[in-house]
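Hi V.,

Quick status before I head out on leave. The structure for the redesign project is tokenized and pasted below; the design run finished overnight.
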């Protein structure tokens, strides 16, 4: 795991004595796209769901994790001063081939 990071996220709901966990991989975009100029990371979340019932507390559907991931991106991009990144959603916009050519 020298090229990326494994994270475990845990939420505890004390009123219900309930834990909800998910695993995430944080992958540098320079590594993922084989582009040393690519800044940032890819957040790949792995979640586990019961197949024989529904969840009654915490994130109730997979879309809740997507919304949380989008909010993480919004906050991090804003801190980095890249306010237009949020307009692209979860997409990464690589440099154009012309921009990679040096004189």
């Amino acid at each position: 795991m020298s090229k990326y990071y494994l994270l475990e996220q845990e939420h505890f709901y004390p009123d219900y004595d309930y834990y909800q966990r998910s695993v995430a991989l944080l992958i540098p975009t320079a590594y993922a796209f084989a582009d040393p100029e690519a800044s940032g990371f890819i957040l790949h979340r792995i979640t586990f769901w019961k197949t024989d019932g529904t969840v009654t507390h915490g994130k109730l559907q997979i879309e809740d994790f997507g919304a949380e991931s989008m909010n993480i991106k919004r906050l991090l991009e804003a801190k980095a001063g890249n306010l237009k990144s949020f307009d692209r959603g979860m997409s990464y916009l690589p440099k154009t081939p012309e921009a990679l050519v040096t004189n």
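Above is the designed sequence. The beta strands are 5-13, 18-28, 41-46.

G. will cover questions while I'm gone.

Best,
W.
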